[in-house]
């Protein structure tokens, strides 16, 4: 076993993407290569800068890309942890453990639909780059911020890609209609993979159920440990058992989990 | 100078070092085996188990707080028999102390659990959780009343045979010494303290509690001062070894608890801040003892000038 | 949108905003008058006073902890008569609520203090400290036993005339709701919670406690989850206004306590992190309410979906 | 009253002094000028970088110099707060309140002895620069680290100064002997001012008592608030009353305070 899976990695780059204002919310973080022997797109890492004790947990991020040049994470600043992460300078060291969890299915011969909402596009970059037949891939990407803030250009050329910029009321509906159309198109002999906000995943789950498509969705439950120990990140599976998203997921077959919000008891 | 002696002698149990991991924060140990050598730990306490499997509380179950966290997992576990069948055979129990953490809703049920677990050669000790704030029945209620605490302790001790019994105390009480005495008087071999402090967090935008269970247990560095105080009070009240728990994150913290009188410690929330925390501690403790000129933990233990 | 309404109606007392400062963390107000306008606060609670002057505990009296601090000041104060003579005349009491915080070692003494202070026009309310962990006599002992808490409350209330009486609760109890009920049943007009959690810190090199008094009171952001929980439990147990205290550092924290049901709040340790903290809060609260679309505190108070 | 006494000031410089290694422990911090109308050498400021909630208190530092170019603090890295302070970069803003407490007496016509131990030399820089008759000043400075790490060169030329580098056992005794000699020399008609570690101040207090010298000493009790409110920094005065060092001091007449350690009760 690789007992070095928790590493202290040097930051190579950490910079805002697609904008120049100081108030940037989208960042690309490049870390020195952790020397992994193996990883799967859709897996994630826990990341913890040396930020002291006030913030207790590390933060989970999808692996955006990983190769000899480095481990790349793509993140959006949404709260205290990501704010502090955005202030980390190249040369500083941060704790990283992973690759964690179960990634997306890769099926060389299957037309594969990639459904991404917002920052949920991150893991698909690595997915497309690692895929043996990228021409089988079709990305449908919905986003609110300008396209340049996301790693959209990073997809290899053979991938068919389209983006839907939600700016006006109604744009979301058009995007979801397009998603539904494409899920239906992939229902018979394709594979559907989705990553994005929970309401979006719920919609995709329903579409897959309705059309019979084989679909996988990637969940982003709040995580304290990332390794299956704290039982903080659980989601009910299809049988109603609560399973850890960090180890049983984050990628699940869409019919294997129950995404309805649990009622506080 | 020779390497400091980190070993700890406890009733019916010798640890190679004072570093155990705390129940509920280290899974069944297996989750952490890629981050370090389980056998290098003094021991680890398994996730709390009950007779029947439990699904625990609904989501959300955890919330981050200033220098700490809240949890209301609600003792989700696969049940003692499944643990015995599926987990114990995979653990390096000959090389390190594997402690079972027991939860039940009645003294009788606690007794039944004790019978099951004490019979297992893999289990070095039983830790009785009478202090969980996250379950509706039993849990902290047993730990908040000396009489109940005594009854539960007795029920477990009577059925534990030679397996030593650790009673885990709650800080959510007016007089922790009284609970400690009740446990001691009813056969506890050791005490561990503390379990979490009852707390709460809310989401202002949604106007909801951050935990589905509303209340949860506060852990992490935030509670270290309370844990140190409890260990000190308990050590002065009873003549049993105490295992210190609460906010321990580094070698210095460990030695502070030993200084106050703890025999060993458990690492909880710090396992989340870095999964190799516990594995790094024995070496860091030895280095710090070296720096301070302390040869053995016995030399330091309980020497606080107070 | 018009400016949100920050005023708070309490029994016998209207505050212009919910921001008070906590006893022992704001001196006699005067220490902070160069950092802001005292009259802009909802009110401030004076350092705890006793009948006779007290020199308090020896040094060291304070220690920093993770997201918090310990104090064992031991109620050093110049005595009620000196406070009345030397401090009250200098306070802007017509423009803001000045609250006296009372400490005594018997119910009778509490009564005497109440007579002295309730007679003063400068004093808007009496806060009864039955929860100080840092004194040998009285202090927390009164706050840890419902019967004692009731007796002290009654002694003060009977002698307070029209001056409203706030009873300040300790979190160091098994059942805070029971203490709250005892205070309510004996005439308390309001409750404030929480006082500090009993804690301890040690100096590993010197092998000494970090506080000369060994034990001290833990305050600051670390305890906010415990304070929120206590406010929630107390509000469900009794039908009195509650003033939330414990770890409040920003406008969001204030509104969280209101959401859980507090009428007003007290700022303690945060006065040390920046002496203008309390002065900045009313404006920041108004801005946050505006952002959240909340017009008045009444609209938010106690609306937690739990 | 100046209601702006707590200010958020921009850091102009924050750099190690007298050494180039990264492990430097001595720093000079220059902050933008706070616009004070008045201050006295020996007064201090409370300083709190935007370091989050983990460290609860600001940290007290003597005012080393203050003029239109900026507010200068000279500090040694000894723990968590000063470690974090040392990482603050120019351009960042930090909270500062002051000037606080009571400074040293300034007596234009009196020969004045400045006794400094280690970092305790800091307030004397400003004292000497502000003194109307620096030729009346005599600095006796004892230090453990190389001289270049302290602001020794910053004293104006007319000040008579001598430094004692404690490197070997016995050096401390020679230094203290010299201090005693100079205190005695200033006993009749001079003024003695001391700043440094507590044992050093105790020694100076005893010498002043023995020789009858008028002496002031600057205390460094641990402080939570700096403004007289928390009662955390108290010291017993000559009558046994506990008084706040932050407001009654930090500079006291040496016969006005009792420096014997209090016994835990
Ligand atoms: C497996 C996994 C992969 C992820 N991959 C990415 C990624 O590639 N890029 C990226 O930008 N983000 C990703 N996230 C989400 C990311 O972890 C959170 O945005 C981050 O933890 C927020 O930290 P914070 O301290 O800034 O926010 P906090 O201050 O903790 O919270 C700020 C806000 O964000 C919400 N929030 C915080 N954590 C989560 C969470 N885990 N899930 C949902 N909401 C949350 C809070 O409710 C709150 O409203 C992923 C999450 C998971 C579980
Ligand atoms: C009025 C006043 C003026 C001062 N002026 C200066 C100055 O000009 N330059 C300078 O470098 N330092 C000065 N100090 C001391 C400085 O405040 C402390 O070194 C600093 O607060 C330590 O913070 P820390 O977080 O790094 O240390 P901590 O992590 O808090 O403590 C580290 C070590 O330092 C000790 N320590 C911490 N604070 C104090 C304190 N206030 N007094 C004595 N020991 C302490 C602790 O016991 C511990 O051993 C002054 C102190 C006071 C009260
Ligand atoms: C997520 C989580 C789950 C826990 N589950 C249990 C449990 O099952 N049984 C138990 O006795 N204590 C449980 N605890 C309490 C810890 O064992 C420990 O007593 C507490 O967290 C204080 O230590 P710490 O501050 O180091 O985390 C749990 C704590 C956490 C954070
Ligand atoms: C230094 C200090 C002194 C205190 N003195 C008193 C006091 O005299 N009377 C009292 O009722 N509470 C006293 N308290 C408790 C505070 O009023 C408050 O209840 C507690 O600190 C929790 O709030 P916080 O976390 O905002 O500080 C004191 C607290 C501190 C930190
Ligand atoms: S994050 Fe801890 S179990 Fe998944
Ligand atoms: S530091 Fe608070 S009273 Fe002096």
Would you give an account of this structure?
The complex is a heterotetramer, with 2 copies of chain A (265 residues) and 2 copies of chain B (306 residues). Chain A has 265 residues and is α/β, with parallel strands linked by helices. Chain A folds into 2 domains: 3-100, Translation factors (Elongation Factor Tu (Ef-tu), domain 3); 112-218, Rossmann fold (3-Layer(aba) Sandwich). In chain A, 18% of the residues lie in helices and 31% in strands. In chain A, strands 4-3-7-1-2-6-5 form a 7-stranded antiparallel sheet. A 6-stranded mixed sheet of chain A has the order 10-9-8-11-12-15, sandwiched between helices. A two-stranded antiparallel ribbon of chain A has the order 13-14. Chain A is globular, with a radius of gyration of 18 Å. Chain A starts with 5 loop residues before the first strand and ends in a 12-residue tail after the last strand. In chain B, helix 2 packs parallel to helix 4 (146-159), helix 4 (146-159) packs parallel to helix 5 and helix 5 crosses helix 6 (224-237). Chain B has an 8-stranded parallel barrel, surrounded by 6 helices. Chain B has one domain: TIM Barrel. Chain B has 306 residues and is of the alpha/beta class. The chains are: A alpha/beta (265), B alpha/beta (306). The structure holds flavin-adenine dinucleotide (2 copies), flavin mononucleotide (FMN) (2 copies) and FE2/S2 (inorganic) cluster (2 copies).
């Amino acid at each position: 076993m690789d007992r070095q899976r928790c590493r202290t990695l040097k930051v190579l780059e950490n910079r805002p993407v697609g904008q120049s204002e100081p108030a940037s919310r989208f960042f690309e973080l490049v870390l020195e290569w952790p020397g992994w022997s193996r990883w799967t797109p859709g897996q994630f890492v826990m990341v913890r800068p040396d930020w002291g004790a006030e913030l207790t947990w590390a933060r989970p991020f999808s692996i955006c890309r990983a190769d000899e040049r480095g481990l790349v994470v793509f993140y959006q600043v949404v709260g205290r942890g990501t704010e502090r992460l955005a202030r980390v300078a190249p040369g500083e060291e941060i704790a990283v453990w992973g690759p964690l969890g179960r990634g997306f299915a890769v099926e060389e011969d299957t037309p594969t639909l990639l459904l991404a909402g917002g920052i949920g596009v991150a893991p698909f970059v690595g997915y497309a780059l690692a895929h043996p037949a990228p021409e089988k891939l079709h990305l449908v990407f919905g986003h609110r911020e300008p396209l340049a803030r996301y790693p959209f250009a990073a997809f290899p050329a053979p991938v068919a890609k389209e983006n839907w910029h939600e700016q006006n009321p109604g744009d979301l509906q058009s995007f979801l209609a397009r998603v539904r159309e494409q899920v239906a198109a992939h229902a018979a002999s394709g594979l559907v993979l989705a990553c994005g906000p929970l309401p979006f995943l719920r919609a995709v789950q329903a579409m897959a159920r309705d059309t019979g498509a084989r679909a996988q969705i990637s969940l982003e439950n709040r995580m304290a440990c990332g390794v299956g120990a704290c039982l903080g990140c659980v989601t009910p599976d299809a049988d109603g058992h609560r399973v850890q998203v960090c180890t049983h997921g984050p990628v699940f077959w869409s019919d294997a989990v129950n995404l309805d919000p649990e009622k506080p008891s | 100078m020779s390497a400091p002696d980190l070993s700890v002698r406890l009733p019916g149990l010798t640890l190679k070092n004072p570093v155990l991991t705390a129940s509920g924060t280290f899974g069944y140990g297996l989750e952490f085996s890629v981050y370090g050598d389980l056998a290098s730990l003094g021991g680890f306490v398994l996730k709390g188990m009950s007779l029947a499997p439990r699904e625990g509380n609904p989501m959300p179950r955890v919330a981050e707080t200033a220098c700490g966290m809240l949890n209301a997992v609600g003792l989700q576990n696969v049940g003692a028999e499944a643990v015995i069948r599926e987990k114990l055979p995979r653990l390096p129990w000959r090389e390190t102390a594997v402690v079972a953490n027991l939860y039940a809703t009645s003294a009788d049920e606690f007794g039944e659990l004790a019978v099951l677990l004490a019979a297992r050669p893999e289990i070095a000790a039983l830790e009785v959780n009478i202090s969980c704030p996250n379950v509706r029945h039993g849990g902290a209620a047993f730990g908040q009343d000396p009489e109940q605490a005594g009854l539960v302790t007795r029920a477990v001790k009577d059925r534990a045979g030679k397996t030593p019994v650790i009673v885990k105390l709650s800080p959510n009480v007016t007089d922790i010494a009284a609970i400690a005495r009740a446990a001691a008087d009813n056969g506890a071999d050791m005490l561990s303290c503390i379990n979490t402090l009852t707390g709460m967090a809310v989401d202002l935008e949604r106007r909801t509690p951050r935990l589905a269970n509303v209340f949860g247990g506060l852990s992490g560095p935030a509670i270290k001062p309370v844990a140190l105080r409890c260990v000190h009070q308990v050590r002065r009240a009873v003549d049993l070894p105490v295992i210190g728990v609460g906010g321990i994150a580094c070698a210095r913290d460990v030695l502070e608890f030993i200084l106050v009188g703890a025999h060993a410690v458990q690492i909880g929330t710090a396992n989340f801040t870095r999964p190799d925390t516990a594995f790094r501690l024995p070496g860091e403790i030895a280095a710090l003892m070296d720096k301070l000129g302390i040869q053995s933990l016995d030399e330091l233990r309980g020497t606080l000038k107070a």
